[in-house]
Amino acid sequence: MLSKNKMFLSSFLFALSLSTSAQALETQARNLILMDYETGQILYQKEAQKMVPPASMSKLMTIYMIFDKIKNGTLSLDDTFTVSENAWRKGGAASGSSTMFLKIGEKVRVGDLLQGIIVQSGNDACIVAAENISGSEEDFAMAMNQKAKELGLNHSHFANATGWPHPDHRMSVEDLAKLARRIITEFPEYYHIFSQKEYTHNGIKQGNRNPLLYSMPAADGLKTGHTEEAGFSLTASAKKGNRRLIGVMTGLKSNKERSEEADKIMNWGFREFDNYTILRQGTKVTELPVWMGKEESVGLVIPETLRRTIRKNQLNDVKLTAIYDKPVKAPIKIGDRLGTLKVEIPEGETLEVPLLADKNVERLGILGRIRANLSYLLFGAK
C-alpha cells in the first residue's frame, strides 16, 4: 500500500544558488577561511583544517577559558591575580615578546588582565592568568586541550597560554573561526573589548594591533598573531547591517600585506554573498493522505527556519525535493517525522531537513476501519 514519493519543489519558492561565473577569490595567505557568523557556512577556504602555528591568535583560547570561568561564577572581573617572577621573566619586556608590562608581585584585576591580553596581546598577562587559574601554565594548557575537545576543535593542540612558538602548539584556521564564533555568541557582554583600540597599564599606553580596526569601520575584532614561522596572521570579524563575517588567515609577509588581504577578503564576502530565508519554521511543504485516520490528510512542515548564505542575485537553481511514503497510517502525533526535504544548492551543500506532521490525526474506530478496508478493496488507495 505504501509507495515512495518524491515531490520536486523548485517552483514552490524563490531558488538560490552559487554562481559558477562569479570571479574566484585569490589570496596570498598560506591558510585562510571565511565564515558567515549567522549560518556558520564556509564561503571560502584554503588549507583550512591544517594544523599550523597560530602565534598569538591562540590567545583566543586563553580568553575563552577566562570568559567561561566568569560566566560559570568561579571567577569575576574584580578578582585579583598576583604576578609571579616566572610570568614576568617569560612574558615581560625582557623576553622580547608582547607584554602588558606587569611587575613582579603586582596584584592585577582579572578585568585588567583581559584588556592586557586582548588589546595589548600581553604574554605576561596570559601566564599570570594561567598560573592563578590552574597552578601552572602547563596545567592550564592541559585544561585548554580538554576544553578544545568539548568545543569540537578537532584540529588544535595547546602547549602554552600565549602562542609562544612550540612544536606541539598548533591550531587550524577552521578551529580559530569556530572559536571566534563561540566567543561572539557566548560572551556578548565582553566582546566590545576586542574593538578597543588602546589600553594603558602601569602608565604605558599600547594600541590594538588589529589593522582592520583602523581601515574598516565594520570591523570589531578579534586577534592578530605574528611569529617567523606563522607569518603575519589575523582572526578578524566585521559586521555590516545584520551580517557578520569571520575571517582567519596566516602566512602573510608583512603587516601591510595582512591588512590589505584582510580588507579584500572581508569585503569580498560582504559583496558576493547574502543570507536568505529559504523556508520559515512551520511552512507547509506538502500534504499526505492518511490511511485509517479520522482526517483524510496531514501537512508536512519543517521544524525550524532554514536560512543559508548564498551568492547574491542567483535565484533560480536551488532544488527542493520532498521525500516521503504515502499514504501514512494513523494514528499520527504532531511532530512525527514523516519525510525528508532535500535541499541542493549548486556549488554549495546538500541538506536533509526533517518533514514533520503539523497536527494530530486519530485512528478510526473499528467500523471506520472496516469501511476504509472495503473502500481500498473496491477502489484502491487514494
Could you provide a short overview of the structure?
The protein is an alpha+beta fold.
Describe it for me?
With 382 residues, this protein is of the alpha+beta class. The chain folds into two domains: 3-16 and 277-379, Peptidoglycan synthesis regulatory factor (PBP3), Domain 2; 44-217, Beta-lactamase, CATH 3.40.710.10. Helices cover 28% and strands 30% of the residues. It has a seven-stranded mixed beta sheet with strand order 1-17-19-20-15-14-18, with no helix packed on it. A five-stranded antiparallel beta sheet has the order 3-2-12-11-10, sandwiched between helices. A hairpin with a 3-residue loop joins strand 10 and strand 11 (231-240). The longest helix is centred in the C-terminal third of the chain and has 18 residues, at 255-272. Residues 10-23 have low confidence and may be disordered.
